Amino acid sequence: MDLSLLHNNTTNKNPEAVYMQRCLQLAANGRISCSPNPMVGALLVHQNTIIGEGWHHRAGEAHAEPKAIRAVKNQELLKESTLYVNLEPCSHFGKTPPCTDLIIEKKIPRVVIACQDPFPDVCGQGIAKLNAAGIKVEVGLEAEAARYLNKSFFCFHKKKRPYITLKWAQTADGYSDFIRQPGDGQKALLISSAYSQLLVHKLRAESDAILVGSRTALLDNPQLTLRHWPGRHPLRVVLDRKNSLQKDLLLLSDKFPCLIFTLNYSKTVGNKEWLALSRHRMSNELEEMLAVLYSRNIHSLLVEGGSTLQKAFLDAGLWDEIQVETWHTSIGRGHKALHIPEDQLKECHISGRVLSSENRSITHYLRKG
Question: Which CATH number fits domain 160-367: 3.40.430.10, 1.10.10.60, 3.60.40.10, 3.40.50.300?
Answer without folding.
Answer: 3.40.430.10
